[in-house]
Amino acid sequence: MAGVKNSIIWFRKGLRLHDNPALLEACKDAKHVYPVFVLDPHFLQQSSYKVSVNRYNFLLESLEDLQRSFQARGSRLLVLRGKPEEVFPRVFQEWGITQLCFEHDTEPYAKARDAAVRALAAAAGVEVVSPVSHTLYDTDMLVARNGGSAPLTMQSFTKLVDRVGDPPAPAPDPPAAIPPPAEGMPSAAPADTGVPSWQEVGFKEPPLTIFKGGETEALARLEASFKDPKWVAGFQKPDTDPSAWERPSTTVLSPYLKFGCLSARAFHARLLEVYRAHPAHSQPPVSLRGQLLWRELFYTVGSTTPNFHRMAGNPVCKQIDWDDNPEFLAAWREARTGFPWIDAIMTQLRTWGWMHHLARHSVACFLTRGDLYVSWERGVEVFEEHLIDQDHYLNAANWMWLSASAFFSQYFRVYSPIVFGRKYDPEGRFIRKFLPVLKDMPAKYIYEPWNAPLEVQRKAGCVIGRDYPAPIVDHAVASKACIARMAAAYRRSKGEGGGDGNDSGGEGGSGGGAAAGRKKAAAAASGGVGRGKKAAAAAAGEKPATGRGKAAAIAKGDGAASGKAAGGGSKRQRTLKETLQAAASDA
DNA sequence: TATTTGTTGCAGTG
DNA sequence: CACTGCAACAAATA
Which sites bind FAD (predicted)? Predict the structure, then answer.
């Protein structure tokens, strides 16, 4: 069909040709298609937004891959320099553009940027088409289907998507030939629109990550994982090994999902295929599909919550009295806490820009509620700079989770910076890899080298305090203190009843105490039987159930106290969901 | 209202 | 390896 329009496909995320509905729309009936990426100074080191060379180069590699893909289809990618709001009015006019297509993006910066560009397009008489393809679903639709507010738990989210049904199928591949930009357009001059190198962008140090950007690499990585369908079907996230680095125990598809080199929908569709062939497959939240649902949940909550990346003014975030401790923060950031497991992970972050999910848990818990009691917001900033898979909503959500500020509240479950890693890697291979100064430390001491006799330290060529720092805290002491401070912060937040100024009346801390007393009594009522599976099964006369729960039946059976003691708890705390709804309706 | 459940804690016991 | 105590949270469920 003869082309009748000149269109721009504006790449931002979604750096791929597969499952790209915006690209298909741009190609439809087009005379000239202009594939554009704008190197926005907002995302450069020089601006307030910090980005490591690892992630920036991952972006550049992804653009080079896109460039090759367009060249193979008789076109080329145009990398334009400048702010989108300044670039587009110029090229709209110069290229005679009638349509602008880009993938919908729900991040705060993107929303503002896209609103500005939409206004400029409208002023120039340019039609805008902006389909959803970064997430599985249109997250606004999910919110609407959930009654106007985002779900806040995986359980409720899973129910919601079950009700909504499978996400849309991936879009078909683009045509084998794409009408190229017109000849002789100054702003599209090949000499000025190539993909720059990291040096040209202004970085001084080379990227060190082992992961290469681009759609081609993403699809190859996906295929590599799916070569073993049994592994895919049986995947359970909590069972994967955070210390595996030669062959990571997870897919490492996150950076490709972040930049959209891989379509979440394409990934999801492949998973459903495998699941059909393996009916006994694992389930959300621990399955591979569950990982995509976590991403979806956090995009959904994040995009509807004000100040999601901060504590203040964030209605889902517990307000906690974190310490401002620049020394602790610097030691953590610079991998010199004196805990080899923590410092090795932080070194992996700074060199590779990627760590296993549970490794992130270790260092995040350590920085915040576990040991250092530094705000999760500082952790967000460090991860935001270094992670190649840094993703605005996921980063904030996971930090809130680990710091027990939102989504997760069992703050007394603290990761040990010594024993957690040792469970997976008793020889300390991971530590030896990323902290070579400890490579000759005997396995017995490698997670706590300060306990090695001086003679052993000398022999290993690593004397604590000289070659490697002494631990900055005593974990046993620090974690106890942190738990106590978390308990106090939780009590305060109960007393304040939600903190949006519209609270349902508080009794200033005493409510928390009463509640704690009630719980204690309830625990006592279970008569020390606890939550054991065997005891529960014996009582119920059945095989062990999944949970800790049935002990309660025993408690009832032996006539122990009814768990009603220490009353006074009639006042009910406002739930997170209610707080969020109130915040949403205020807005 | 009471009880159970929640992607991923640890130390101690038998 | 299974279980319990630790000290005890918030949401979902019954």
Answer: 250-254, 291-298, 389-391
Instruction: Judge whether residue A419 contacts strand B, using its CB and a 7 Å cut-off.
Output: yes
Domain A1-134 has CATH 3.40.50.620: yes
A458 is in an annotated binding site: no
Q: Which CATH number fits domain A326-476: 2.40.170.20, 1.10.579.10, 2.40.50.220, 3.10.20.30?
A: 1.10.579.10
The dihedral through the CA atoms of A486, A490, A493, A495 has a sign that is negative
Q: Annotation-wise, does A440 bind a ligand?
A: no
Residue nearest to nucleotide B4 (CA to C1'): A549
* Cα gap A111→A304, rounded to integer Å: 12
- What is the rounded distance in angstroms from the CA atom of residue A540 to the CA atom of residue A533? 10
CATH number 1.25.40.80 is the correct assignment for the domain at A216-304: yes
Closest residue by C-alpha to C1' distance, nucleotide C10: A409
Give the predicted TM-score (pTM) of the model. 0.88
Q: How far is the CA of A36 from the C1' of B5 (A)?
A: 49
Q: Taking the domains of chain A in order of start, what are their residue ranges?
A: 1-134, 216-304, 326-476
pLDDT digits (tens, 9 = 90+) for A356-390: 999 999 999 999 999 999 999 999 999 999 999 99
Q: Is the CB atom of residue A556 positioned under 7 angstroms from any atom of strand C?
A: no
